[in-house]
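Data card: per-record layout.
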Amino acid sequence: MDISKKAAVKKYFLEPTALVPNSPQPLLHYSGLLKDKCNPVNINEQFDKNEWRTQWIFRYGPTQESHYHSRIHECMVVLSGNATIRFGVADTSDDLEESTYRGACEQGGVTIDAQAGDVFVIPAGVAHKTHNTSPGAPFALLTPGKGRGIEATNPKGALEKIKLSGFTMMGAYPKNCGTWDFSVGGEDVGNFEATWSVAKPEKDPLLGAAEQGICGQWKDITLSKRQDKRAKL
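The structure for this 233-residue chain is written out next.
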């Protein structure tokens, strides 16, 4: 699956907030990269080739808590449906109606309309919240296990059996880097630097060594400027 020639990347640099570390590396959005190619089996093979590991396929409900992963980078591929994803800010209310539709969230961030074929590469620390999903369907984990790996003797066979409905995404993380945590904001205040220092993977999850992916878009960083900004919050 050679898709690097058609990859057009959008970059979003998200500054730290009072509750969320975000990252010196940009959020990457490959709009429509896998349009008409949303086959979980083929995508999983590409992840594996580039040393990333599929951990889940979720069908999303109407909304969710804003959250981030403090010690691991993430790739999300939209397999079906449409949704809105808000990046870069924490919820400021436990009430999902308030935090999704009535402005109970931090100021800033970016909101992106997502559709089947879109790919997001999310640096460790960048908050994200998926909502306004369509077609409407209840939340469900579609892969066998607990969402931290495909727990099946034949992962390919398990992926082949999945029937997509509603808004679904497939998530992968660099191999040998553990599994994701679920931080909603505030957990790492005073230690954002640990999240900013998570190592850059050697390859992009789908584009490998191509310059359009993280190999060209994520740079070696120094933390001094970001530490200065954090001190002013």
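Known properties of this structure: Residues 4-219 form a domain with the Jelly Rolls fold (CATH 2.60.120.10). Helices lie at 40-49, 96-101, 155-160, 192-196, 214-217, 224-232.

See the next section for split statistics.
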